[in-house]
Amino acid sequence: MDKRDEELELGEGQFSDDDDDSRIEELERRIDERESTAPVIATGLSLGYAMGMCLALVLSWSRNASILWCVLHGLCSWGYVIYFAVTR
After folding, report:
1. By the 8 A CB rule, do 62 and 49 touch?
2. Residue 2 has pLDDT above 60, yes or no
3. How far apart, in whole angstroms, are the C-alpha atoms of residue 88 and residue 31?
4. Distance between CA atoms of 17 and 7, rounded to whole angstroms?
5. Which residues, at least 6 apart from 74, have a Cβ–Cβ distance to it below 8 Å?
6. Which of 22, 39, 56, 64 is most buried (most C-beta within 10 Å)?
7. Where are the beta strands (DSSP E) in the chain?
8. What is the biggest distance separating any 2 CA atoms in the chain, rounded to whole angstroms?
9. pLDDT for 57
10. C-beta separation of 42 from 55 below 8 A
11. 3 state SS of 66
12. What digits encode the pLDDT tens for the residues 55-87?
């Protein structure tokens, strides 16, 4: 590997030492670009559905001890949780 390849690999060579302002601007632009395209990890709605699903799975297992029923009731989510609370 020659010196130019090493500089490019280390991220050097794109800016001169006295060109700190343009280097800072480039880094800020990259940060802004990443922040604008960052995916949303979870919303309140999906967290609520996941919580209902987990609760339905636990309640179904405690009542039936069957994996098939757990899967079915997990898909029903909050619907099964409400049903479980009413029929208990």
Report:
1. no
2. no
3. 53
4. 13
5. 53, 56, 57, 60, 80
6. 56
7. none
8. 76
9. 93
10. no
11. coil
12. 999 999 999 899 999 999 999 899 999 999 999
Question: Are the C-beta atoms of 84 and 63 separated by less than 8 Å?
Answer: yes
CB 73 within 8 A of CB 80: yes
Q: Which two tokens stand for residue 11?
A: 């991220």
For residue 42, is pLDDT > 70? no
- The answer to whether 51 touches 61, Cβ cutoff 8 Å, is no
Residue (of 32, 35, 87, 33) closest to 59 by Cα position: 87
Residue with tokens 């995916």, as numbered in its chain: 39
Q: Which pLDDT band, with edges at 50, 70 and 90, does 15 fall under?
A: low
